[in-house]
Known about the structure:
Blueprint: E1 13-14, E2 36-37, E3 43-44, H1 59-72, E4 84-90, E5 93-95, E6 101-107, E7 114-117, E8 120-122, E9 124-128, E10 131-135, E11 144-150, E12 156-166, E13 170-175, E14 178-179, E15 186-192, E16 199-202, E17 208-213, E18 216-220, E19 227-234, E20 240-249, E21 254-259, E22 262-264, E23 270-276, E24 283-286, E25 294-299, E26 302-306, E27 314-321, E28 327-337, E29 343-348, E30 351-353, E31 357-364, E32 370-374, E33 377-379, E34 381-385, E35 388-393, E36 400-408, E37 413-423, E38 429-434, E39 437-439, E40 445-451, E41 458-461, E42 464-472, E43 475-479, E44 487-494, E45 500-510, E46 516-521, E47 524-526, E48 532-538, E49 545-548, E50 551-552, E51 555-560, E52 563-567, E53 574-581, E54 587-597, E55 603-608, E56 611-612, E57 619-625, E58 632-635, E59 638-639, E60 641-644, E61 650-654, E62 663-669, E63 675-684
Amino acid sequence: xxxxxxxxxxxxxxxxxxxxxxxxxxxxxxxxxxxxxxxxxxxxxxxxxxxxxxxxxxxxxxxxxxxxxxxxxxxxxxxxxxxxxxxxxxxxxxxxxxxxxxxxxxxxxxxxxxxxxxxxxxxxxxxxxxxxxxxxxxxxxxxxxxxxxxxxxxxxxxxxxxxxxxxxxxxxxxxxxxxxxxxxxxxxxxxxxxxxxxxxxxxxxxxxxxxxxxxxxxxxxxxxxxxxxxxxxxxxxxxxxxxxxxxxxxxxxxxxxxxxxxxxxxxxxxxxxxxxxxxxxxxxxxxxxxxxxxxxxxxxxxxxxxxxxxxxxxxxxxxxxxxxxxxxxxxxxxxxxxxxxxxxxxxxxxxxxxxxxxxxxxxxxxxxxxxxxxxxxxxxxxxxxxxxxxxxxxxxxxxxxxxxxxxxxxxxxxxxxxxxxxxxxxxxxxxxxxxxxxxxxxxxxxxxxxxxxxxxxxxxxxxxxxxxxxxxxxxxxxxxxxxxxxxxxxxxxxxxxxxxxxxxxxxxxxxxxxxxxxxxxxxxxxxxxxxxxxxxxxxxxxxxxxxxxxxxxxxxxxxxxxxxxxxxxxxxxxxxxxxxxxxxxxxxxxxxxxxxxxxxxxxxxxxxxxxxxxxxxxxxxxxxxxxxxxxxxxxxxxxxxxxxxxxxxxxxxxxxxxxxxxxxxxxxxxxxxxxxxxxxxxxxxxxxx
Length: 689
């Protein structure tokens, strides 16, 4: 019977079977002499010429025999024979491709030993009775394999899960997936089954490898030609993995062209940069400015950018720098063009007092912004248009011709000699006023005739300041102010140099008759306004004002002392009062004289364009229905400035300032409070100018 196998996972051995026909003590045949012991201690006999096999005794067996003999002369027991067994395996693991030479150490190995690996027989080489060697076959199914050694006699030894197949390495990805060809870039290789001492090859190069774990390696690239290459990882046991994910050695970016290749000094030109090997995050630089341009990565062959403002015309170097530090450039990639030079054609007035005063500069090609220098002093200037500027001439100690110079933002300038003359003014004089009598309400024009009137002069009627316009050195147009009480008042004209003239009792304010309302028709209209309203009454004079529900009518026509024609302003639905105010401030009212009806709610159909500059000023058309006089456009809640005439279906406005990148709502609000909103209808685009 074969012995039971050992269940020990590391070593198993079985006892040999009892020798057939050999009892514990050989029997003696009748008449045969007793066996004798020779000098060597071997038992001999002549029964059939047979003798029991020799017994090899260990020291402890011999001692036990001696003890037994001393105890009574009994026959000693036989020593146990050595058994088949496995003591160790070396190595205990290897690659899945097989081929590992496995050394089996144990006992009682012989030429008739048979070896099975993972349940399959394998060839073995007997080195000694304590050592066998086999070649591990390729991986089949199980990660662990049992090892069994047996003999034809039925003896066997088992080592459970004695050998482990190491997993082959895998490569999942490399971070980053590219590097410059010069080398020296740190790259992390992520995968599995990565063994200490493994080797990595990228294309034809072998980077330096630092083993971090079985799933992570740190690589340092070495110099390699540009291109995309496979990555191979090879463990020390020869197992390897090849990934076709590809690792790119990026060459230096190349810039082949820019379109458009030129633009104004004011900047804001959107350029398309063409070339190769543009990485995401690439920065664009123009000239020697260390700040990158606002740019966008379109593809590895295209970038887009906005040119900044420049101070001088001429070609500029354009450079593209990838995040890894590699760069490419075009020596004359973009040219700034100087616009037309400014031209100063006329400055008015022709004379300015020594204390200075406002001037108007006319010409062409005035940039935004531009600077103005008057008599050697840089002054604040307001650009009305590319053909008109307003400024204030500074004070000077002496009279004479003044030079006015305009400098555009591109550095070009133009000087106008003898633009005007600084003069020491004489005191002004006032000869007459026309008319010399008026109502307390004021607001009507009064022509003042005299001499030595200077630009920037002021006019006062009694204690009230009047708004005035200089026509010439001998004529002013003043707008009579509102005055508190009737009577004669002095009129004073003061030049900017402080010299003044007062005409005593120059103007008379009279209290006019109080206006009166007798009838109003029609008595109702839309809350959006625009109803043509007739007011009948008495004592209506030029300059009379009308309000409905506290809202002043923008258009009032005095058809006579007994009739007014008014275009109603917008208002809230309901009954409102009508108030008529005479130029002298006297007033009358009729309570609940007009009823506003709710109008159709406004709607928004479209907003065009739907994007514009962050600084505002983009002209947009808001199209829809129900727009009336007084309708307001709101962009992100801010009122937009009307640009040009609109109608009931279209409003044209200029956008207010906003925040870069914000999509905002556009709304319209009618005077009756009804609102229509277009959600996220306008983008504040930093690329727009």
